[in-house]
Specification:
- By secondary structure, the chain is an alpha+beta fold.
- It has 14 helices and 7 strands.
- The strands form 2 sheets. The protein has a 4-stranded antiparallel beta sheet with strand order 4-3-6-5, sandwiched between helices. The chain has a 3-stranded antiparallel beta sheet with strand order 2-1-7.
- A hairpin with a 2-residue loop joins strand 1 and strand 2 (about 40-45).
- The longest helix is centred in the middle third of the chain and has 27 residues, at about 140-165.
């Protein structure tokens, strides 16, 4: 539960930290110093792997690992990263084969516009400027988004959608009867938030300010006015950045669920400390759940699909690997090939042509 700018930044960062093949395929010059794997008509190169490893190392360092620990951990998973890049190539190629490129581009544009709108920005050019100020390259972000969305589009259309519509009525009812506890209506809460970041500040000062704002909000001060004044979100300053949204209580993190557990609608939590800063939450509305399971066909289909999707997706990827041409460099083959589990096609035994006789087929037998 962060301020909207932090949520948007995390969204962008997630895309930027996705596999580096995206940037390599979308126009960034790549020095092909070594081909690690040929994947149909594409390649995975050493330069791509190094970028991927570097990004993983930086992420681990940001999460508290030392440089040595992060480097050692990533090195141990080098073969898995190569397999990941091979799978990515296969999905991208499949997406192009399925003519998903225009659909993916439309989704990229839609998401960028949504980010701009959520942050009170009225043009894509201004959004690009804000991203650059935050040290994020807009072109690289879009390139990576294209790849990530393409991968998901392929898996959703070729795996999830087919799974969703494959279940018979009897199967749906059997699943519902066996999992009734999963179909109870959960409690929901509508939340607003004030976020005070810790970056560059003394924690004691931030904690004191959080306590002061809680007292003001409980004393009758307008919560969204306080959020607009104090939430550290320069992009949406003055744009009422207090609203967070509607959540099912079981989906909330334990810390947040605990902070609002006993709050009625219209009441404000104590300051909640996280690694990023202090969060003050207001419950705008709370809707009680139900203890009576309700059968809804789409909900049951979604539940079964969620349960089976991971295996079905891996089976689909395995099929792409089996059907494709994947040749791994000798330097990496021993470690990577077992991860891919490629099953070679069965050998085809050619039968000797049968000797045909008789005039019924218009053939004159040889003497």
């Amino acid at each position: 539960m962060k301020s909207k700018l932090i949520i948007a930044t995390l969204l962008m960062t997630a895309f930027v930290l996705a596999p580096s093949l995206a940037r390599a395929q979308e126009g960034e010059p790549v020095v092909v110093d070594e081909v690690i794997a040929q994947v149909n008509d594409g390649v995975v190169t050493l330069s791509q792997l190094k970028r991927e490893m570097k990004e993983r190392i930086e992420t681990l360092k940001q999460n508290g690992k030392t440089a040595q620990q992060a480097t050692s951990e990533v090195e141990q998973h080098k073969a898995e990263l190569i397999a990941l890049l091979i799978n990515e190539q296969l999905l991208i190629q499949k997406g192009k084969e399925l003519d998903l490129t225009e659909r993916v581009e439309a989704e990229v544009n839609k998401r960028m516009l949504e980010v701009a709108k959520e942050n009170g920005i009225n043009s894509i050019d201004k959004l690009d400027d804000e991203m650059r100020k935050a040290g994020v390259d807009p072109a690289a972000t879009r390139a990576t988004m294209r790849i990530e969305i393409m991968k998901q589009a392929v898996l959703e259309s070729e795996v999830d959608s087919k799974l969703f519509f494959s279940y018979s009525s009897d199967e749906l009812h059997r699943y519902f009867d066996a999992h009734q506890a999963n179909f109870l209506k959960p409690e929901t809460v509508d939340l607003s938030e004030i976020f005070l970041g810790l970056a560059g500040k003394q924690e004691a000062d931030v904690k004191a300010l959080a306590a002061k704002l809680v007292a003001q909000a409980r004393g009758g001060a307008d919560f969204c006015t306080l959020a607009a004044a104090y939430t550290e979100n320069p992009v949406t300053a003055g744009k009422k950045p207090c609203k967070v949204g509607l959540f099912q209580v079981p989906d909330l993190s334990p810390a947040i669920a605990g902070a609002i557990k006993n709050l009625n609608a219209g009441t404000v939590s104590e300051p909640l400390k996280t690694d990023e800063g202090y969060h003050i939450l207001r419950v705008d509305a709370r809707t009680a759940g139900s203890n009576t399971p309700t059968f809804n066909e789409n909900n049951v289909r979604e539940a079964i699909t969620r349960e089976r999707s991971a295996k079905a997706r891996e089976d689909y990827l395995q099929g792409l690997r089996n059907d494709g041409y994947v040749k791994i460099s000798e330097s990496y083959r021993a470690e990577v090939e077992p991860l891919l589990k490629i099953v070679p096609p069965p050998a085809i035994t050619k039968k000797a042509p049968e000797k045909k006789r008789g005039k019924l087929l218009g053939i004159i037998p040889k003497p």
